[in-house]
Amino acid sequence: MIPASFRDCKAWQKEGLPLSTSSNEACKLYDAILTQYVTWRNDETLAGIEGCISAVQAADPNFVMGHVISTGLELIGTGSSVRLNKRLAAAVQRTVELAGAQDLSPRERLHVRAMERFAKGCLPEACDLWDEILLEHPTDMLALKFAHDGYFYLGQQTPMRDSVARVLPHWNPNMPLYSYLKGIYSFGLLETHFYDQAEKIAKEGLALTPDDGWAVHSVAHVHEMRAEVDKGLKFMESTEKDWKVCDMLACHNYWHWALYFIEKGEYEAALSIYDSQVARRCTASGAMLDTVDACSLLYRLEMEGVSVKDRWRELLQVTQPHTEDHVLLFNDLHFLMTSLGAKEEGTTHRLLETLQELAEAPGESFQHQLAGAVGLPMCQALLAYDQGEFGKAVELLRPIRYRFTEIGGSDAQRDVFSQLLIHAAMKSEKKQHQRLARCLLVERDAVRPSSPLTDRLIQRAHALHV
């Protein structure tokens, strides 16, 4: 039995968010799935999100919002392509057909349309639809979270912040999941460089709910962006017991912890976190967030001159099945890091060739439309760098460096590409590129003062006789 604390038909009705089902069990299971999504935690007492998804479809097979949240979560996870996965494509189609045969509320119809547009790769339209829901129903947490994730994938930092800001006055502390709004809003603030406010809001959330892994993650970002390495290390260590229970986010928080060690030049400590936490969790979950973090961590270490040995081959087992997914350019770039690191030329060729084909005939997919101008040049730069063609990597990255944001992810995650440009410029034989490296490092030092990593790179750049 699902706990009584979850909302039944009457409770959802009372909140102005009625669900088109007569099954109280289905309504409660919908709430249970939503709660686990927001808290980044599979609740074992409920058999986790997967168990609840099976249960909600058994409780009412025709419950449209049950299908919207179940299929929507698989889509938003970006680990499966509707193009290639017939089961997922059929699940989207089934939801649309069910919606067409029922008398749904306008809000529910918008949810179905948003999910369908997201499935087709039309992320900006999906986000517009979720925001349209929030105009009339500002307490619809599913629309809020889906919009937040959608804007994140688009690298649209200001809409990600404002989408939450405009609904906050409509919430109160007695509402379910209220405290989690703090962490969600904080993340939008930090991605738009309001670091003081972001830290304050996240800590307000943590005062209410200490095990809110997303609010912890927001504070970790603040310390990362300010290069407050020792503060960051102390914070992660002191809160670890609270956030490591968030199984869907713990790997990412350990990734942040490892970044502080890379920043300090303590590579063995970073590798230790990779081996004991990141690689283990990534292999177990196969989740895209865990996977891209593993790729990024190894790539950063290699740029710093650290040998990561057989770890690329092991990680390839996780990334290789996704070579032709092409759901997000951000994912593609990280999978490419792994195939290059593992010296798997066939996989590298397949990834680039199939992405090129989609870029030439992108259809409605926003990511495929972006591939030609941004995604492919970034991929080709990774390949050039791997082949020792550092000048070519610079020429590919320099014209689009202010467009890196468009591939999505956070400032901290995308920093790997900024570092790549700096390393390529320093290694290039062209004096002009070496001068560019110095200029890029001056820029970097201005926005992130006192960064030990930047200081190390500046010393190396000055050793070049430009």
TrEMBL record:
Q: Spell out the Gene3D superfamilies in the cross-references.
A: Tetratricopeptide repeat domain
Known PANTHER family for this protein? TETRATRICOPEPTIDE REPEAT PROTEIN 38 (PTHR16263)
Signal peptide residues on this chain, from the entry's feature table: none
Which domain of life, per UniProt?
Eukaryota
InterPro entries (alphabetical) = TPR-like_helical_dom_sf, TTC38
Query: What family is reported?
Result: Belongs to the TTC38 family.
Q: What is this protein called?
A: Tetratricopeptide repeat protein 38
Species annotation: Albula goreensis
List keywords of the entry alphabetically. Answer: Repeat, TPR repeat
